[in-house]
Amino acid sequence: MKTLIVYCSSHGTTEKAVGLICETLEGEVLTVDLKREKTMFDLRNFDAVIIGGSIHAGQIQRRIKQFIKQNHDELMEKELGLFLCCMRGGELAIEQFNHAFPQELRKNSVAMGLFGGEFLVSKMNFFERQVVKKVDNITADQSMLDIEAIMEFTSKLNNLKTMV
Question: Which residues, by range, are in coiled-coil regions (predicted)?
Fold first, then answer.
């Protein structure tokens, strides 16, 4: 089974999550960071597509939204995994996830994950540091990346592959 992972990583947290997914996901995997890479790919060449991003000021990255909008119909035909890296938990994290991904894609998804997140103050610009300090009172790097949630997400996809 061939899997495409499309994501955006602003400070590296989503990229870390993608790296962990790749380490444990079975089959051939192509990863594309829509923020940095210009890799050309054809969705028809993949059996499964994983889409992930992170929340900044309550929103997932614009490039992820554009990718979903441009490829919505074809994504509905794929085995789909959706994940989000965010520092919020509980109902707010679920709300952000539901806002980030259209309902039709969520319903069609075989795996969904909330992976926690990180405040990487050392990689933020001045404005981002000021916002994080004011809103969350965070002044140093902080990680709450949920490795267990990432492994559970990957396990669902691997189990699906064994059924094919």
Answer: none
| pLDDT tens digits for range 56-90 | 777 899 999 999 999 999 999 999 999 999 988 88
Q: What is the 3-state secondary structure (H, E, C) of the chain?
A: CEEEEEECCCCCHHHHHHHHHHHHCCCEEEEEECCCCCCCCCHHHCCEEEEEEEEECCEECHHHHHHHHHHHHHHCCCEEEEEEECCCCHHHHHHHHHHHCCHHHHHHEEEEEECCCEECHHHCCHHHHHHHHHHHCCCCCEECCCHHHHHHHHHHHHHHHHHC
Domain that holds residue 157: 2-163
User: What is the structure's pLDDT at 134?
Assistant: 86
- Going from the C-alpha of 63 to that of each of 21, 36, 38, 73, 104, the distances in angstroms are 21, 11, 12, 17, 19
CATH number for the domain including 61?
3.40.50.360
> Which pTM was predicted?
0.89
In 3D, which of 161, 148, 21 has the Cα closest to residue 82? 21
